[in-house]
Amino acid sequence: QLTDLLQQYATAFRDPMMLQPPEWFKAFIYCEAFLQLPFFPIAAYAFLKGSCRWIRTPAIIYSTHVATTLFAILAHILFHDFSRSEHAGPQTLRERLVLLSIYLPYLLIPLLLLFTMLCNPHYKHVEKRKRK
Questions:
Q1: Which positions fall inside the EXPERA domain (predicted)?
Q2: Nearest Cα to 115, choosing from 67, 74, 48?
Q3: What is the domain count for the chain?
Q4: pLDDT confidence band for 51 (50 / 70 / 90)
């Protein structure tokens, strides 16, 4: 069952945010559900088609939004005092780094997307409109 899987994950990796998310984390979950998830099929279409330069602006918005939320999550993992949490959180530096390594790809992939959108000449090219 999914709840059992969630419990196992939270226990194994000492991630209390999954079992009892803080209010700010819940806000990020809603952003993911209503902003980020709808972006995926649109981006998949644009990248699979290959010539869709219009994806640049939505991809920049998406990647900066995700990176911003992940910076807050990673800072929370590194600096929060989890000793008061109802569910077991990371206590040692090693436990914090293990949990950090689970969230880190969710930062790195959007940063790679942002770098691609900003630096790849294919997406930087501006098409000139023909005059009538």
A1: 1-114
A2: 67
A3: 1
A4: confident
Cα–Cα distances in Å, from 63 out to 84, 91, 93, 119?
Answer: 33, 30, 28, 14
Average pLDDT value for the chain: 91
pLDDT exceeds 90 at position 34: yes
pTM for the model stands at 0.84
- 98 found inside a domain: yes
Residue 9 and residue 68: Cα distance in Å, rounded?
24
- From 55, 54, 31, 57, select the one nearest 43 (Cα to Cα): 55
Nearest to 70 by CA among 41, 43, 99: 99
Contact in structure between 35 and 65 (CB atoms under 8 Å): yes
